[in-house]
Structure formats: C-alpha cells, structure tokens
Amino acid sequence: MSGTVSPAAAYSAGAVARRLGVAVTTLRTWHQRYGMGPSLHEPGHHRRYTEQDIERLELMQRLIVEGVAPGDAARWARKRSPAGGAATAGGEGAGDTAAAVRGLSRAALRLDAPAVRQRIAEAVRDLGVVAAWDGVLRPVLVAIGERYAATGTLVEVEHLVSGCISAVFGSLPRPPAGTPVRILLACADEEQHSLPIEALAAALAAAGVPARSLGARVPSEALLAAVRRTGPAGVLVWSHHPSTATPAQLEAVLAERARPVVLAAGGPGWGRPSVPSGVIFPDSLTEALVILTSALT
Predict the structure, then answer these.
(1) Contact 162, 141 (CB under 8 A)
(2) Does residue 187 sit in helix, strand or coil?
(3) Structure confidence by residue, pLDDT tens digits, 236-288
(4) Residue 146: CA atoms inside 13 Å, Cβ hemisphere, count?
(5) Would the pLDDT of 93 be above 60?
(6) What pLDDT score was predicted for residue 224?
(7) How many helices (DSSP H) and strands (DSSP E) are in the chain?
(8) Side by side, which strands form the sheet with 279-280?
(9) pLDDT digits (tens, 9 = 90+) for 24-59
(10) Which domains does the chain have, with CATH numbers?
(11) Contact (CB, 8 A) for 217 and 206
C-alpha cells in the first residue's frame, strides 16, 4: 500500500472487533478464509486496519446479515472502490463527479437532448454503471424531483433526462446470446419508477450477468406467471413509494413451490417491519448486485 497513513487512521484488530461488534477470532477467520484482513503494514509492527478496510468489513457484515454467503459477501466487498461505488470525498473522483453533475444539469435545463445523452454516456463510460448512477444520474434526478415538489415545474426536464438514461442503459453491451437468464427484475404493481431496475440490469450486464426486466407496473399475477415460466434464481421487486409496496406481492412469490433462491425488495417504498421474513433489503445498487449474483452460485 503506497502513501503515508496517519496513526489516527490505523486500527488494531481489537479496536476493529469492538467497532463491528464481533470477536477478534471472527476477524481472523475473515482474514484467513476470505482475504479480508488489514492492509497497513509497518516493519516491526502488527498489521493495522485502515478506514477503507473497516468500510469493506462493514459491507461484508451487512451482506451476511441480509443472507448473503460469507464468501460472496467478501468477494464483492473487496471489489468496492471509488471506481465501482461512491467516489472518495475530497478526491479527484469526487471533483470529476461534481463536474459531471453540473454539466448534465445544465444540458438538461436547456432541454438539449443530444448533450444530455452525451453527458450520460460519458459518465457511464468513465465511471462505470454503478458509480455513474449513484454519483451523477440519481443526484440529478433527485434535484429535478425536489424542484418539481417545490414549484410544480421541470416535468419536461425529468422526462427528457429519464428517456436519455434509458436509451444509454439500453445501448450498453449485454452478455452473449444463449447465456442463461436467471435474474428477474420488476417494479411493484402500480410502481412507475423503472429507471432503478434499468440501472441494475445494466450493472448486471457489465458484470456478465444477463437479467430479464419486466419494467414498470407489474401486477402480482404477471410477476408470478413470469416466476413460474422462467424459474429465476434471483428476483428483485422495486418500489419507490409506500403506496406501491404491498407485502402480499412478496408473500405470493415466497409461497411458490419453485420459489427463487433470493427474493429482494428494492427501493425506499418498502418498510422492513411490514414485509415477510426471507426477503432481503439491498441498501444500494452495489448491494443489489451482490445479493442477486449470490443466488447464481
């Protein structure tokens, strides 16, 4: 590891164990079995954990609690980086992301469709699907939504940006024809916000995993029919608003004889206490990728 790490950013195994609420022996096991050990090494001293090491461990721990196998959770936590997730605050990536947000916002307000699409394509190309969605596209959409909520304006801007995002995601390369499709994505009944599952489908494709997306407003009967006909290993149902998050939709999938290995409820519409046990809640696009791909192993 290059560079100098300040003593305040270096932690012993005991300190990390207390922070995570696990035993030191658990940390040692994660280190030996899954390569999730400390990365800072000073000659003559024990290895120390950095903040980045701890963030990865926290992600791994959260995924395990959600039902992901420890090996899969560790593999995806190790992949987490500014290029694949959120940019490091104050770093070059953060500055590039902020500039991309400003450029896209200005083009959107001008209703300059070619420029909007170009900005979106550049963000996806330079940052990857996950980081582009989390750091550029979603913030712009949220800002437009907040402006609409306050003033009732910019509906045309939101439609234009959403259409361009869909077009860019749809144009990205997909896995080769003939690759088994074992992931099913759908919006909840009456849910119209389908861009998040389009982003997830594009991110899965970038990882070499094809997905079948049913789009917006999928009735429970149609979702069950798709599950029965395709036998997916992983299913994610997206809800943006509590009014579309009906637990019965999830209960019906769980009741299927050939139920999927993983059933995930994505989006802020779902409330954890109100859904049946056995349903996993990804907190981010990265975690949705981990959870769904863990169903394929």
Answers:
(1) yes
(2) strand
(3) 999 999 999 999 999 999 999 989 999 999 999 998 788 888 899 888 888 89
(4) 6
(5) no
(6) 97
(7) 13, 5
(8) 212-213, 183-187, 234-238, 262-266, 279-280
(9) 888 888 898 888 989 887 666 678 899 889 988 988
(10) 7-68 (1.10.1660.10), 92-171 (1.10.1240.10), 183-294 (3.40.50.280)
(11) no
